[in-house]
Amino acid sequence: MKYFLVVGEASGDLHASHLMKAILQEDPAAEFRFYGGDLMQAVGGQLLRHYRDLAYMGFIPVLLHARTILQGLSQCKSAIREWQPDVVILVDYPGFNLKIARFVKQENICPVYYYISPKIWAWKEYRIKAIRRDVDRLFSILPFEVDFFEKKHGYPISYVGNPTLDEVTEYIAAQPVDWDAVCKTYGVDPKKCVIALLPGSRMQEIRSNLSRMLLAVRDMSDTEYQVLICGAPNMDDAIYSQIIVENRCHAKVMRGCTYEVLRHSDVALVTSGTAALETALFDVPQVVCYYLSCGRVMNFLRRHFLKVPYISLVNLICAREVVPELIGEKMNAQNVRCTMLEVMDRRDEILTDYEDLRRRLGEAGAPTHAAREMVARLTKQ
To answer: Are 121 and 308 spatial neighbours (Cβ–Cβ below 8 Å)?
Structure first.
């Protein structure tokens, strides 16, 4: 069968690549075309457009790049119409993907599956109408989404487990990476304690968050600690170098070895999203930091319009504050530094809460569960 996938960022590329491998186990003759990234391309199939060409978030960046985004949308629709796939699989990225879902249903081309749901439980809940109308099956990776979609909106979904749990579990079970060799490559001392910084994967996130993170740890970077920045795969080194120099902090950018860094970290400063969940699954105490321009205005909007009490997946899954969150105007160097020291002192308590997180996520095997159900549903049609 023919599978057309649409991904809009680095984490989606990772999750979709694992899903594609799992689909091949169920359907060895599977053909893939996709808007995606390098990891998906490595699995096989035809990469039609790289996600980095369309990975914009926030009102202003989207407005500034509207022509590029609209062009990408038009080309994606044309590619689907011409190829006539057996299914379109959308991965997160709702602003773009829900438009693709509408097109596919209007054209009556094929079923639409959504892997990794739009976070409408947090904002834009009205999108449930589009999902109900245009998405044939939603495959959820967050356990609390079952109640939201099924009990609140009467829309059945499939919870398949969490792929991040699979990826971390597989990494930990594999042959250990030679940390000394990794450190030698980057000029890092393997014996020093590690403060990991995960400032996001998009340009706006990195520029907004990394400076404040570096200021918070600057005076610790010359002591027994070393500051390691987990670089996003699609970001130029010059961006990180400029921010490091501007903030006069000794820090190293590590690429392609985020899991290695987390495995050897003592504490982490993390933007919200998948990175916070990964950090928790590596048992690293963390502070979730997310700066927003116009901080006071955004904090007001968050209090009055955001539908959930937390932004961190760790806290949302556990339904309580496991890791502290510093958002908007609360994310400044002093607050980040003090909170980071607090979580380091509370390490044992936090690790106990991380065990509860694992219980709530359930068993591993999300890509396999999703692929098996997808292929079974397509085969029955």
So the answer is: yes
